[in-house]
Structures are given as structure tokens and as C-alpha cells.
User: Fold this.
Amino acid sequence: MRIDVLTLFPEIFHSYLGQSVLKKAIERGLVEIHLHNIRDWSHDKKHHKVDDRPFGGGPGMVLMAPPVVECVEAVQAMADQPGHLVMLTPQGRKLNQAIVEELAQHPRLLLLCGRYEGFDERIRLILKPDEISIGDYVLNGGEVAAMVVIDAVIRLVPGVLGDEESSRQDSFSGPDRLLDHAQYTRPRCYRGYEVPAVLLSGNHRAIERWRLMDRRRRTEERRRDLLDSTTPRSGESTRDEKASKNLLGGCGDGGSNAESCATESQKNSEEGS
Assistant:
């Protein structure tokens, strides 16, 4: 996948591109990131000005159409495919996992980052971009939003993640769009809170049932808006879910297993010393 970022501040991305999963994806040739400074297309060769005062008055400055439009058109011509143009703006459709999956289908994305009071309207009319917002709030510019889009999209590029199941089991992923289930790792006991027994049982069917039940419960408690009429509520557990629930053991309330958990925690502490 190729991603072109069109911005007034390309230096913002330098540290970001050298980190973690994205860095490895670039090194392995799975993702290409190209940065383009919109000022390079300014008609003002002395000061490289790209903004001006809004007609009709008002605060701030507006990005002018000529440098932005010409920058986009030039960048589109740099590859065989012009790519899918995304304008990052608070007035766009709100980003969610379904939109991320849609964007990941494109072999090339162009991310246009705004600044100041926004874009001259003729930029939108001429280029007809896919306008996307990352939420109902305002940032100083579109660069952070572009990083959000990049981070979300590259996870879906084949080979980027070590385990392909990771992206399919994330929150908001899959056909049900539920939140992810609770995760646990060592130690088994910590400060009276114990890992659910089902996760240690080795019964893979029971573990999968428990995880589905936990995803539904968490989604109902925290994001009821994600549930539709076809998704069973946590109180409507199926027989299989109820069976796996019986395997939970100590689930963190420090109840009947609190004493054994405390004993194991003390043992772990002594071994560590």
C-alpha cells in the first residue's frame, strides 16, 4: 500500500514513521509513506504563502485553492494510480472501523491535511475528496488525524501484523462490531485479583464462549450504541455461555479464591526477591 501525505508540516511525521509496527512495515516494503509539502506548490516563490484572509471577513486564515489543488494533482500524477483522496476535516463522515476497512481496500491513499480556518471551498468542489473526521472536536491541523488513519489502515494490510487474527479480533472488528474481551497475562494472581479459571482450563471451546460473552457484556455496559436488535444482551446468555460462565472461578472480586490468590501472590513475591 502507498500512502501520500500532503501537509504544511511534513517534519511532524518524521519521528512517527520511525516507530513500532509502521517502521517495520516500511522496512519490509509492505507500506510506502511519501510526504509532500504543500508550500512547494505556492505561487509566492519568495515567502511560499499558501493562505489568505477569508472573503467576507472573520478570524484566521484560509488555505488557498491554487497551491492545494495543484499539489494534489501533481502528487496524483506521481504514480500509475491517482489514488483515493481523503480530506481530513471536522465536517467529514466520522471515522469508524467500517470506514477503515473500506480505506484499506485502496492500494493508494492521499491524505490531505488542513490548517488554520480550513480549506477554500473550491478545493472540495474541484477535487471531490472523501471527507473524513476522526471525531466531534477540533485540532490545530489534520496531521494528527492523518496519523490516526495511517495507524488504523496499515493494521489491515496483509503481513503488517505478526498475527493476522489480531486485527480480526480487535474492538469494532468482525461482523458483530463488539468491543474486545478482557485480556490477562502473568501473574495468575495479583493483589487479590485472579485470572478467570476458564482461561487456564485448556478448553478452547469454553474459552471462545467466555470471550464472546465478555465481549457482549462489555459492549452492553460501555457502548450500547454498538448493539443492534440481533445481538443478544448479556442477560440473555445461551446455554453454552452459561456453561462457560460456571468455569469462571475467581473473576477479580477477591471472593472465595482471594485467600489462595493472596498466597500465590506472596509466593511470587518471595521468588522474585
